[in-house]
Amino acid sequence: MTDPRTRMQKKARHTALACLGIVVGMTALAFAFVPLYDLFCKATGYDGTPLRGAASRTVSQDKMVVHFDTNVAPGLPWRFVAETPQVEAQLGATQTVFFRVTNTGTVPSTGIATFNVQPGLTGGYFVKVQCFCFNEQTLKPGETMDFPVVFYVEPGIKDDPNTRDLSEMTLSYTYFASKNGQPQAALATPAGTKAN
Questions:
Q1: How far is CA 10 from the centre of its chain?
Q2: What is the tens place of the pLDDT at every residue in 126-173?
Q3: Nearest CA to 152 among 35, 72, 53?
Q4: Is 64 in the same domain as 122?
Q5: How far apart are alpha carbons 47 and 105 in whole angstroms?
Q6: Is residue 161 domain-shared with residue 113, that is, in the same domain?
Q7: What's the CA gap between 163 and 157, in Å, rounded?
Q8: Which domain holds residue 105?
Q9: Domain assignment present for 22
Q10: What does the pLDDT look like over 61-92, one tens digit per residue?
Q11: d(C-alpha 185, C-alpha 64), whole Å
């Protein structure tokens, strides 16, 4: 016959191991959630995440006004503007728009742009063929560069009951200081200065 004390210790050990397993599993899920959510958004266009793809083969007579919003996060001394505030894009037709970036700082700096499309429902219909936002850029002090975005809006946007009545969308970019290809939002801006 087993000692009751030994049985209690065995149960306590099993309970502790089960709790430890749950904690390890939940921690792993917490770390995996962000990359998995990012992959989901990129694959489906969820929450305004534009899709990535090749040029469209279908062109529609319908049009969509695409506005461009440009921002620079604090800590990156860059000026960033679109060549035009908006374009009227024929659905399915490839468009190219250039964005001008200038390093207003006194040292070389590296940045990467994050992006989304609003309203969020339109993200699944906005397809980028080529974009400066896929890679980080390094600019010397005072250097100015023009970067293209090649995109189209899927004609299917007019077939979707959630988006068919929309006539405008906004493509928004924010440049962040970059380290190893990842945005670094926490880089400090010296007191009394403001990013452009």
A1: 50
A2: 999 888 888 899 999 999 999 999 999 999 999 999 999 999 999 999
A3: 53
A4: yes
A5: 34
A6: yes
A7: 6
A8: 51-181
A9: yes
A10: 899 999 999 999 998 999 999 999 999 999 99
A11: 32
